[in-house]
């Protein structure tokens, strides 16, 4: 598989796992999931950008500052949107008097989703580097 394939494969798997965790968060907070197809497509797109970005860095063989900057941007897209949505969701749940144990579970799941967001471009980089052609 080429670098682009690795990037997309990592992204799709990460997006599916993250979306399942987000569904569990919604069940814990609200007692019912409330997701749209457009929201799911947006999440898959953000993960795809992160995965392809990480794989491209691996394919190009970048080192040092360029590598860190590219990976930070790739992770940053996911983290910015994820933190904004996650914090808002947790604040809404707290305002609705959701029990503390449910908020704690939702918080742990939120941290797991953010970990997946950070790991996606890094894993894609590692796998994308394997497909690098060395002259």
Q: Please count the helical segments.
A: 4
Structurally, the number of domains stands at 1
Kindly name the structural category: mainly alpha
Order of helices and strands: HHHH
Largest sheet: none
Radius of gyration: 16 Å
What is the straight-line distance between the termini?
19 Å
What overall geometry do the principal axes of the alpha carbons give? elongated
In helices, the fraction of residues equals: over 70%
Description:
With 135 residues, the chain is mainly alpha-helical. It has one domain (3-130). It has 4 helices and no strands. The chain has helices at 3-30, 37-60, 64-95, 100-130.
Attribute tags:
135 residues, mainly alpha, 4 helices, elongated, 85% helix
In short:
This protein is mainly alpha-helical and 135 residues long. The chain contains four helices and no strands.
Give a topology summary.
Elements: H1 3-30, H2 37-60, H3 64-95, H4 100-130
């Amino acid at each position: 598989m080429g670098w682009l394939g690795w990037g997309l494969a990592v992204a799709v798997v990460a997006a599916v796992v993250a979306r399942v965790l987000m569904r569990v968060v919604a069940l814990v907070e609200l007692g019912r999931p409330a997701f749209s197809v457009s929201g799911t497509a947006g999440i898959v797109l953000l993960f795809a950008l992160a995965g392809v970005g990480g794989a491209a860095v691996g394919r190009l063989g970048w080192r040092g500052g360029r590598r860190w900057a590219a990976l930070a941007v790739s992770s940053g897209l996911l983290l910015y949107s994820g933190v904004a949505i996650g914090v808002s969701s947790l604040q809404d749940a707290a305002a609705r008097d959701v029990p503390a144990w449910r908020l704690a579970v939702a918080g742990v799941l939120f941290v797991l989703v953010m970990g997946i967001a950070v790991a996606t471009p890094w894993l894609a980089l590692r796998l994308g580097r394997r497909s690098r052609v060395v002259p």
